[in-house]
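2024-03-11 09:14:02 INFO worker-7 job=invfold-0412 stage=load source=structure_tokens
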């Protein structure tokens, strides 16, 4: 994996701006940062990004989120969060079992990465970049039920897409289902376009393939 400098962002639901840019345009944010004298001594391990959730009307930081890369301490959450949403809508498939039971062998060792969004010490969501046959795929994306409606999918999308760009892939694809209306809308918002409609020969729940070209 290419060396990564930790990034800091301001997040207003779906709008994400680098913190320095946001602070330069919003004096209150710069003053808050200086007053708090932020330091990163409390960062979780493997942290690649910090997202400050801001209310620009109230001129306040309302939350702080961290995005971290794979650690075995989050293995249980990776499996449980993904199984929860899949079982609620579909049948669990063989590929799910392989990736969720053995992510080290079937995602990480093949060149991919797994990201976790943390609120405090709790895993709020996760996403994976899965590499196979020279192609990068975004998959295993989910936000825990208790964190739905807060825009938490957006930093996960941003980190997965940024990873694929840094690793030099010309594009990133994803396989999903048309019935997942909100998910499809999210992907379109991040620039993904439909490249195939119809049943997939290997994945029962997939009936749409989308791609983002860099």
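2024-03-11 09:14:09 INFO worker-7 stage=emit residues=214
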């Amino acid at each position: 994996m290419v060396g990564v400098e930790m990034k800091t962002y301001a997040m207003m639901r779906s709008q994400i701006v680098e913190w320095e840019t946001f602070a330069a345009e919003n004096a209150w944010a710069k003053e808050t940062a200086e007053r708090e004298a932020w330091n990163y001594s409390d960062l979780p391990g493997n942290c690649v990004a910090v997202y400050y959730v801001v209310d620009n009307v109230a001129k306040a930081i309302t939350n702080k989120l961290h995005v971290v890369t794979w650690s075995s301490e989050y293995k249980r959450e990776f499996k449980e969060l993904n199984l929860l949403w899949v079982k609620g809508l579909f049948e669990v498939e063989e590929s799910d079992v392989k990736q969720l039971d053995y992510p080290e062998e079937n995602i990480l060792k093949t060149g991919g990465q797994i990201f976790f969004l943390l609120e405090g010490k709790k895993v709020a969501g996760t996403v994976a970049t899965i590499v196979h046959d020279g192609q990068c795929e975004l998959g295993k994306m989910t936000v825990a039920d208790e964190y739905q409606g807060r825009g938490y999918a957006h930093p996960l999308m941003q980190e997965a897409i940024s990873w694929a760009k840094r690793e030099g892939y010309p594009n990133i694809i994803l396989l999903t289902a048309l019935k997942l209306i909100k998910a499809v809308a999210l992907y379109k918002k991040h620039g993904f376009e439909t490249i195939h409609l119809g049943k997939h020969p290997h994945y029962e729940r997939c009936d749409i393939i989308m791609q983002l070209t860099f």
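2024-03-11 09:14:09 INFO worker-7 stage=report msg="The helical segments are 19-25, 27-36, 75-89, 94-101, 103-108, 153-166, 181-189."
2024-03-11 09:14:10 INFO worker-7 job finished
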